Amino acid sequence: MIYVIGSGIAGLSAAISLHKAGYKVTVISKKIIGGGSTYWAKGGIAVALDGNDSPEIHAKDTISVGDGMCDIKAVNYVTTEIRYAVETLEEWGFKFDEDLRLEGGHSRRRVLHKTDETGREIFNFMYKLALKEGINFTEDRLIALKVKDDEIKGFITEKRGEISNSDRIILATGGYGYLFKFTSNPETNTGDGLAIGFRAGALLSDMEFIQFHPTITKFGSEYFLLTETLRGEGAILINDKGERFAFKYDERGELAPRDILARAIYNEYLSGRTVFMDLTKIEDFDKKFPVLNNYLKKYNVRKNRVIVYPGAHFTIGGLRVNLKGETNIRWLYAIGEVSDTGLHGANRLASNSLAESLVFGINIQRYIDKWEGLNVDDGILNYVTLKDGEKLSINDIKELNWEYLGIVRNKEGLEKLVQIYESANTKEDNAILVSLLSAKAALLRNESRGAHYRADFPIKNKELEGKRIYFKVKKSD
């Protein structure tokens, strides 16, 4: 039996492709419907399909945005394989809209979408298909992995207890973006898979790189992501003085990469100015973005005055894997946001996350019978001891991370954060553990690169280009 832990696009595509290849699969998720980021993803899937585009150009854009930290093999693999993955999804019966959209950081129109709720549309389709195929789903929470001699032997869940009949375990549990005060992420994204994998001995990397989406708004009590494609279709950003300020920060204006635009908006707020998105320049807005249009009407928000601010959106770091999704623990795989393939580097190109998840999910059935093993490049390896300690509320963690691990960081704040988390319960609390590892990584990277910005080290350090920071648990004697 192969167990897939997680039910987003990565987990569902893996489960379906494995089932179609003849494997027995069970999907376990702490919240099956609407639990992961896929359900809330607005943009689409980046794939070079147009005549003036190619996987090589897509790769070039990915590497440019990744700011010196991309794994080139991972980039070439995903930008090439995504065509096959999309074709497979369409063969299963999914239908995309016909037009390709443009997003920040892309030099070509290459974002496949389904209305303005691509993630939800794909999830609904895949979930129905998986049920039709007879794949078993269980709503349960992963507690721990059972490992002996660096090989997976089973796992423990909250409801079912210990399960030892697992041939393979695929973690597809998502990231930890919910652990910030302002976020586009659902409440399930608290880093469970990363923390549990780490405690079991899995290697983590790139934990300092957390992407903040520049344009999140709020309708009532609900946070709502204003997709990148809005700006690709003509939306502009203005402050309360009526200034179109984005070009002050980057020549690409509203189509600059997310890290640049998030800091630009953050700086506007620090200067006492409120930021709005003006949607009035988008042609056929009602047809292109029907869901957002309904929200604007429901909450009586004018199209030229949609208030926006940046928030945590995507956690780039995760369980280190190779191009087969293999971790350093035999028969333990990780795919999607819980993993770190090196594709995104220091900053993710828009709509590459669904692409990565789909590629690794659909392709995993090719490799599931033969274990290759993980080889890692040279980097900075750190061992971390798990400790008992005080427990913190999730709201306290969100406040602390936003203040000290947010868009702009510095040594003083990061040291304070590390001190707080090192005296807390990393043995049991997943949110505290992944927050500690992120803070430690951010403190170690004495430079600004991609999504990681240090006010006390505002420029890049050439010696750190391509140098990854790794973490592994220090086993007690």
Automatic annotation (TrEMBL):
The chain positions of domain Fumarate reductase/succinate dehydrogenase flavoprotein-like C-terminal read: 429-461
EC number, UniProt record: 1.4.3.16
Q: Which Pfam families match?
A: FAD_binding_2 (PF00890), Succ_DH_flav_C (PF02910)
What are the record keywords, sorted?
Answer: FAD, Flavoprotein, Oxidoreductase, Pyridine nucleotide biosynthesis
Q: Name one GO molecular function term.
A: L-aspartate oxidase activity
**Does the keyword Lyase belong to this entry?**
no
- InterPro entries documented for this protein: FAD-dep_OxRdtase_2_FAD-bd, FAD/NAD-bd_sf, Fum_R/Succ_DH_flav-like_C_sf, Fum_Rdtase/Succ_DH_flav-like_C, NadB, Succ_DH/fumarate_Rdtase_cat_sf
Required cofactor(s): FAD
Start and end of every FAD-dependent oxidoreductase 2 FAD-binding domain? 4-354
Copy the pathway line from the protein's UniProt record: Cofactor biosynthesis; NAD(+) biosynthesis; iminoaspartate from L-aspartate (oxidase route): step 1/1
For the biological process aspect of GO, one term held by this record is: NAD+ biosynthetic process
Q: Describe the family membership recorded for this protein in Swiss-Prot or TrEMBL.
A: Belongs to the FAD-dependent oxidoreductase 2 family. NadB subfamily.
Its protein name is L-aspartate oxidase
